[in-house]
Design a protein that fits this description.
single chain, mainly alpha, 2 domains, two-stranded parallel ribbon, two-stranded antiparallel sheet, 11 helices, 4 strands, about 60% helix
């Protein structure tokens, strides 16, 4: 092995009160995304970019979080990535603390929620979508960072100097799993399952050293996706929102197309977590539909232009 690769051993808990009970980074990522979204959406509303009044922003974001992101994202994950498990035990849909959210499902949920909200309050659907997609990438970024902390959704095998090794790889049966079980048992006989190995990795340097000879070095694709889907998209859309005069719907269209593009690129480095659709991963295949949705918003903005209050 040419490099001493980092063996992932971060805890999913900020504070753990007992085994499996505590404050998880995954939950905090969603809270951070919602709070950032509320603060920035209010700022856009005060500057005249949104038809939604600043005092209504918090309720709107919370509703989107519940009905769009959480319900849409969780249901989308179950239907698109874990259908067999969901059919065998439907109640696992409520186990949010175990992770498992689909960004594509969350986006569909938000589209439906914002459409309902706009019609109920008689405001421009395209306008509230434009401002939501500007702040939304920060939530995507925090979510990907939480994926990294959890050591899940890791990347493909790699030999780059910054490659990392993820113990969650051992949940896939095979020779590496058997080798890890033997190596762990030689250090402590109580480490006789993958769950116990993963827990022990966080506190045992000798176990990490043993696993470094077994685990596959991989791209930290979660960090790539956090940069692409989160930081890059947010910077692009914030610049367009605050520096360029565009009709309602254009930013939403750009978001869907740009998200699809960076997701397709990011999936090149991510280990597929579902069967391929032809040559494409599940994430890449679903992203093609987002391009069509984005084109729909751009065409609508061209055919029936309307403007935020700041540009009227």
């Amino acid at each position: 092995m040419l490099f001493a690769y980092y063996v992932h051993h971060l805890s999913p808990f900020l504070i753990e009160f007992g085994h499996g009970v505590g404050v998880r980074w995954y939950g905090l990522a969603y809270v951070a995304g919602f709070l950032a979204g509320i603060a920035l959406y209010k700022r856009l509303a005060r500057q005249g970019y949104s038809d939604l009044k600043p005092e209504a922003v918090a309720d709107f974001i919370v509703g989107g979080a519940i009905f769009g992101v959480i319900i849409g994202g969780r249901l989308g994950y179950m239907l698109l990535y874990n259908l067999d498990g969901f059919l065998a035990s439907p109640l696992i849909i409520f186990k949010l603390w175990d992770g498992g959210m689909s960004s594509h499902g969350g986006m569909v949920g938000l589209v439906l929620y914002t459409l309902w909200y706009a019609r109920r309050h008689r405001i421009s659907w395209r306008n509230i979508c434009d401002n939501l997609v500007v702040v939304g990438p920060l939530g995507l970024m925090f979510g990907r960072l939480a994926n990294f902390i959890n050591g899940e959704l890791y990347g493909r095998a790699a030999s780059v100097p910054w490659a990392m090794q993820f113990p969650k790889e051992l949940y896939t049966p095979g020779a590496r799993q058997e080798a890890a079980l033997q190596a762990a048992a030689a250090i402590d006989p109580n480490w006789n399952s993958v769950d116990r190995i993963e827990d022990a990795t966080r506190v045992s340097a000798p176990l990490r050293e043993a696993l470094s000879q077994i685990l596959t070095p991989r791209h930290p694709s979660q960090l790539y996706e956090a940069a692409l889907e989160g930081a890059l998209l947010f910077s692009l859309l914030w610049l367009l929102r605050t520096r360029v005069k565009v009709p309602n719907g254009v930013l939403t269209g750009i978001f869907f197309i740009a998200y699809a593009a960076v997701r397709i690129v990011g999936e090149l480095f991510r280990e597929p977590d579902a069967p391929l659709t032809g040559p494409f991963t599940r994430g890449q295949f679903l992203s093609f539909f987002l391009v069509l949705l984005g084109l729909g918003f751009l065409i609508s903005a061209r055919l029936r232009p309307s403007w935020p209050a700041r540009w009227r």
